[in-house]
Amino acid sequence: MSWFGVAVAAPVWRLRAGALWHPSGGSVRFHSSGAALGGASQAIVDRIIRVDHAGEYGANRIYAGQMAVLGRTSVGPVIQKMWDQEKEHLRKFSELMVASRVRPTVLMPLWTVAGFALGAGTALLGKEGAMACTVAVEESIAHHYNNQIRTLMEDDPEKHEELLQVIKKFRDEELEHHDIGLDHDAELAPAYAVLKSLIQAGCSAAIYLSERF
C-alpha cells in the first residue's frame, strides 16, 4: 500500500553525503550504476525501486497510524494482517535497493510523518475512515504498479523478469487490501468520495516527487 510514509519498528534513516546512515552507526553508500543493466534500462530500474521503496515505506507508516488508533478494536487484526504484508513488501524493496545500488528518496522524513498522520487521522473517523484510506491508497498503488509493469515489458521483459514478478505479486496483494477495505464499509466513511479524491491526489504527488528526488 503506499504513499505517505515505515513500520514503527523500522529504523530512522538519514541521508548524508550520498550515504544511507543508520542511528546505530555505519553507513551503506548508494550510487546508481549502469554497469548491471546499462543506459536507459538502469535508469528505469533506479526510478522504479526508489519510488516503490518510498511507497511501501509510506504504507507501513499509514498502517502504523491506523493501528495506534484502532489496534485494540475489532478491526485491529484485519489492519495488522495487511500491515504484515506491507512489512514484507518494504523488506523486499530494501533488499533490491542494496542489490541495485539505488539511493532512497531524500523525502523519507516527510513520508514518515505524513504517512503516520494520514493513517491516524483517517482512523479517528472510525473503522470506515481507515478503510476508506486503504481503498484510496491501494487503488492508486495498484494503478501505479500496472504502469510500471507496462514500462518494464516495453523495455525488456526478460531482463526485468525478477522485478516484474515482485511488482505483480505486490500489486495483487494491494488489490486484496483494496477489496478488504470495501468489505469493511469503506464507502460508509464521512464524505467518502471527497476523502478518497484528496488521498489519491496526495498519492499522485508523493509518487511524482519520490521518483525524482
Describe this structure in words.
This protein has 213 residues and is mostly helical. It contains six helices and three strands, in the order E-E-E-H-H-H-H-H-H. It has helices at residues 39-70, 76-100, 108-123, 127-155, 161-183, 192-212, and strands spanning 14-16, 19-21, 27-29. Helix 3 (108-123) packs antiparallel against helix 4 (127-155). It starts with 13 loop residues before the first strand and ends with a helix. Residues 1-36 have low confidence and may be disordered.
Write the layout of secondary structure elements.
Elements: E1 14-16, E2 19-21, E3 27-29, H1 39-70, H2 76-100, H3 108-123, H4 127-155, H5 161-183, H6 192-212
Antiparallel strand pairs: 1-2, 2-3
Helix pairs in contact: 1-2, 1-3, 1-4, 1-6, 2-5, 3-4, 4-5, 4-6
Uncertain ranges? 1-36
The count of DSSP E runs of length 2 or more, i.e. the number of strands, is 3
Strand content: under 5%
Class by helix and strand content?
Answer: mainly alpha
Computed over alpha carbons, the radius of gyration is 17 Å
Q: Which descriptor suits the 3D outline? A: globular
SSE string: EEEHHHHHH
Name the strands of the widest sheet in spatial order.
Answer: 1-2-3
- Span between termini: 20 Å
Helix count from the secondary structure assignment: 6
Mean pLDDT: 84
Percent of residues in helical segments?
Answer: 55-70%
Largest sheet: 3 strands, antiparallel
